[in-house]
Amino acid sequence: MLLGQILLQLIIILVVVQLFGSASRYIGQQWVIGEILAGLALGPSLFGALWPHLSLQLFPADTVPVLQVLGEIGLMLYMFSLGVRLDTRSMLQQSRAAMLVSLSGILLPLISGMVLGFYLYPAFAGAKATPQSFMLLVGTAMAITAFPVLARLLAEKKMLGTKIGMLALTCASVDDVIAWCLLALVVATINAQASSAIFSVGFTLLFIGAMLLIVRPLFGYAERHIQSEQWLIMLSIAILLLSAYITNLIGIHSFFGAFLAGVILPSDAAFTRKLHSIDQINSLLFLPLFFVLSGLRTQIGLIQTPSLWLICLLVLAVACLGKITGGALAVRIKGETWREAFCLGILMNTRGLVELIVLNIGLELGILSPMMFTMLVIMAIATTMIASPLLPLFGYRSQKTDDANSEDAVEQTVLEDRGNHNSLPTRE
Asked: Is 64 inside a domain boundary?
């Protein structure tokens, strides 16, 4: 009975995601926006509000843990794939100006978000939140840029060959790595007492060192001597699962281990092509479950009064102001025009999937209340959607794609091309 229920849910999710994704592409937005809106539509904000009894029949409470496990597997595969394609050498080889832009783009929204979190903590914190964890999580949510979403957007706007586009791509990589480290610190702190949190962070640093200094050279040796492609893929997945298991055991989220496993593996185009079939299945079947679970947890009906909507608008305003200003000022000081400066700020303001990862972890850990979670989800959707209509004002227009598959192919090409270069072009 449970298996039949899960299969029915998967069919519904597949169809709804395709419908909303296609509609999103039709109005000039990215496919990921349609995935997020599909999750909201299937949740209590729309479907549950219109047909509550039917919603409970299609998505009963006893099936949610199964969907959560499948969604988390999809999330781990996604983070692993993102880590594989992350060109860490290019990040380390960037000029000081690029690093300055990256730090400015994350510090200003982080600080402004923490200040906002300080004032919102008494009314909107979760049951297990402390003032420090709540402030840091809200600040991290404000500081994030969704690298995959940005890569798609740059391809659509034909900005991959521009200085500002490549600079934005590099800054997004640096910002996300810093954000993952901050999130790992939050998770380690909330899962442990004050004394044992230090040990969690210490074990995490030891684990990172072991992955970089031991596992990475060993896999490089195996890649040179093992001719079987199937065995290499199996070994890669084994490292992914073991790394996710160890980080979960340490007390930080398994996604961090999956991401680190991807980072230590080769980032060349030949290796990423071997994993492309896994990405295709994951993006079609498992990863959309993560969006649906986010939608099932989002209850827009909780924001009922004008005062709550004003607070929601305040959250959105702080997020946009901090991220856009932080990126724009650093680029302007670097010597670029205001046009290019604001373009980079708008690009860095995109969030999407990466933001939802952080918010779902915050909700699961009891740091965010359901109402604060809903406000931040609305902020993530809005900041991602406004990029497409704002960029044409600065002369950047979209390149049409027919469907999600073509869009995924564009992102695949973008990320693999980055692995084939030692550095990204930046203006010195």
From this structure: no
- Rounded to an integer, what distance in angstroms lies between the CA atom of residue 269 and that of residue 240? 19
pLDDT level of residue 406 (50, 70, 90 thresholds): very low
* Residue 381 resides in a domain: yes
**What's the one-letter identity of residue 20?**
F
Residue 372 sits in a domain whose CATH number is 1.20.1530.20
CB contact at 8 A, 283 and 65: no
**What percent of the chain stands above pLDDT 90?**
14
- Give which of 98, 108, 114, 80 is closest to 172, Cα–Cα: 98
Percentage of the chain modeled with pLDDT above 70:
80
Q: Where are the beta strands (DSSP E) in 164-323?
A: none
Instruction: State residue 129 phi and psi, 5-degree precision.
Output: -80, 145
Asked whether residue 147 is domain-assigned, the answer is yes
pLDDT (tens digit per residue) in 206-231: 988 999 899 989 888 888 888 887 88
3-state secondary structure of 212: helix
Q: Look at the block and give the residue holding tokens 């604001």.
A: 342
* CA distance from start to end of the chain: 63
Tell me the C-alpha distance between 253 and 68, whole Å.
14
Burial state string for 32-56 with b = 16 or more CB within 10 A and e = fewer than 16: bbbbbbbbbbbbbbbbbeeeeeebe
Q: What is the pLDDT of residues 19-76, one digit of tens each?
A: 998 898 888 787 778 888 888 888 887 888 888 888 888 888 788 888 888 888 888 8
Residue with structure tokens 């959105």?
316
Torsions phi, psi for 273 (to 5 deg): -65, -30
* Residue numbers of the domain that contains 83: 71-419
| Tokens of residue 259, six digits | 């991401």
On whether the CB atoms of residues 29 and 389 are closer than 8 A, the answer is no
Q: What is the largest CA-CA distance in the chain?
A: 65
Q: What is the rounded CA–CA span in Å between residue 48 and residue 25?
A: 25
Distances (CA, A) of 64 to 68, 186, 194, 259: 6, 25, 32, 25
In DSSP notation, 404-422 reads HHHHHHHHHHHHHHHHT-S
In total, how many domains does the chain have? 1
Q: Report which listed range, 62-71, 116-125, 150-159, is most confident.
A: 116-125
Whether 35 maps to a domain, the answer reads no
Q: Which residue did the predictor score with more confidence, 125 or 422?
A: 125
